[in-house]
Design a protein that fits this description.
single chain, 494 residues, mainly beta, Seminal Fluid Protein  PDC-109 (Domain B), Immunoglobulin-like, five-stranded mixed beta sheet
């Protein structure tokens, strides 16, 4: 009997426990669990605490049961296994993408001289959803002249991107808020980044001028500006303003002497036109001419990296046409005069006011020559025509009559952006013996009829057109090429 009582006392808790779990549901903190709940918990000072772990620890669970719940310490959210993937409670499905985004810098400054760009690093970390692309963009409008570019965009899942902002001297100064936006599935992140652009000096060109030098004019307008550190200068050629040159040896517009490394911009709403090259003058040892046409003058000459916005006209001066002539000249020792024979035509001047080839010879003898015509200037300027000599000239030496028949065309001057043309030359000579007899009268006896005189194998050269923009190794935004458009005529070159 005593043994039976001992066995009953030992097993009685187990009997109670089995009796408790034999119910349909269990309550903790309540004696009346809800009929629909298998486990009903109630408390006013305690909570339910599921297992807490990192994403890596969560993913190491082998064969998780559907509906298994954990607390993710990395995103501070409950996660449950839906039979396909671990899903945060705020996700609708496994493909819902959520991520974090941060910047290496949230504000920067561009001075446009030491640097005209800035780079920031964007860190992307996907926190939920199947790995997928995260695309970045700029959500607001940027000021004129500011551009941007992303590297590695879109970024797959997690990683870093580089965002570069670039400005020009035309970009307005000030501080600009920029919204950097990331997008992945339904998740959108916006970060506000602040970029400050320091101002440039503005040089207004309001009056027409010749041989303009920005370096000189800049320090006239800003006498206290730095002379040893780079500056940012915007030169604004106002509408109706004409910037020209009175010599092919100087450009119409040069950026001049500015501190090395300066940033320059030219906003052209007027006309920048190089001087036309003079037409060639026939070979004349007295005055040192060779017959070559001269090169046209440059419109713009750069001495610093320069951005050009052209809403007006930039024309390189036209090249001068070559002269075409034939000369038999003897130059005796000084002070005896030069004597001989010269026949030909001068080259036309290039557009931009180039002078036509006009002979000013000190040759004593027979000189028959037609000057070339001047090129015209202004917006509608044209190259001048070359001289034309195509009429016979007769002269008599003793009883011999000579008839010279030249057919000479000097090269035409080039229009804006064009070289001068090559002229042509032909010359024939006829010789007649003229004898006068008593009673019979004068009897011509032809000795030579239309004998062609050989012309030089290498005729004089015509002049090249001036550059529209000669950048001298400095950078500009207009690609190297030869341009013949309504607004740009001539070469943009090295």
């Amino acid at each position: 009997m005593r043994l039976f009582k001992s066995i009953f006392v030992f097993f009685s808790p187990l009997i109670f426990l089995c009796t408790s779990f034999a119910q349909d549901n269990v309550g903790m903190g309540t004696n009346t669990p809800h009929p629909s709940a298998l486990l009903h918990l109630e408390s006013f000072d305690k909570g339910f605490l599921p297992p807490a772990m990192t994403t890596t620890q969560r993913d190491s669970i082998s064969n998780p049961a559907d509906g298994l719940v954990i607390y993710n310490t990395e995103d501070s959210a409950l996660h449950f296994f839906n039979g396909v993937c671990w899903q945060a409670v705020y996700q609708e499905n496994c493909d819902d993408c959520f991520f974090n985004m941060s910047l290496s810098s949230y504000s920067d400054t561009i001075d446009r001289t030491i640097t005209d760009s800035v780079q920031i690093i964007i860190n992307i970390s996907q926190t939920a959803g199947n790995p997928q692309n995260i695309a970045l963009s700029i959500a607001n409008s940027l000021p004129a002249g500011m551009t941007y570019s992303f590297s590695n965009n879109p970024q797959f899942s997690s990683g870093t991107l580089t965002l570069t902002f670039h400005v020009t001297p035309f970009t307005p100064d000030g501080t600009f808020p920029i919204v950097i936006q990331g997008l992945c599935g339904p998740s959108v992140k916006n970060i506000v980044y602040s970029l400050t652009i320091l101002p440039c000096y503005l040089v207004n060109i309001i009056n027409s001028t010749t041989n303009y030098d920005l370096g000189i004019d800049f320090y006239i307008q800003y006498p206290s500006a730095p002379t040893s550190t780079p500056v940012c200068v915007v030169a604004d050629v106002n509408p109706g303003v004409s910037v020209t040159s009175d010599t092919t040896g100087l450009p119409a517009f040069t950026t001049g002497v500015l501190p090395s490394g300066s940033a320059v911009a030219i906003v052209n709403n007027g006309m920048i036109i190089g001087m036309g090259g003079d037409g060639g003058t026939a070979y004349d040892p007295v005055n040192g001419t060779t017959g070559d046409g001269l090169d046209g003058g440059d419109a713009i000459n750069l001495t610093e990296n320069t951005t050009i916005v052209n809403s007006g006209y930039i024309f390189g001066g036209g090249g001068g046409g070559n002269a075409m002539a034939f000369a038999l000249i003897y130059v005796p020792p000084s002070p005896a005069p030069t004597i001989g024979f010269l026949a030909g035509a001068g080259g036309g001047g290039g557009a931009g006011g180039g002078k036509g080839g006009a002979l000013s010879s000190g040759v004593i003898g027979i000189v028959i020559y037609e000057d070339g015509f001047d090129g015209t200037g202004g917006l509608l300027g044209l190259g001048g025509d070359g001289g034309i000599l195509n009429y016979p000239v007769t002269f008599t030496v003793s009883a011999v009559q000579f008839t010279v028949s030249p057919n000479a065309f000097g090269g035409d001057g080039g229009d804006y952006g064009y070289p001068g043309t090559q002229g042509i030359f032909n010359l024939t000579i006829s010789v007649t013996l003229v004898i006068t007899f008593p009673i019979i009268g004068t009897i011509p006896i032809p000795l030579v009829q239309n004998y062609p005189i050989p012309i030089p194998v290498s005729p004089p050269l015509s002049g090249n057109a001036g550059f529209a923009v000669k950048h001298n190794g400095f950078t500009t935004n207009i690609p190297d090429n030869i341009y013949i458009t309504s607004f740009l005529k001539g070469e943009v070159g090295p």
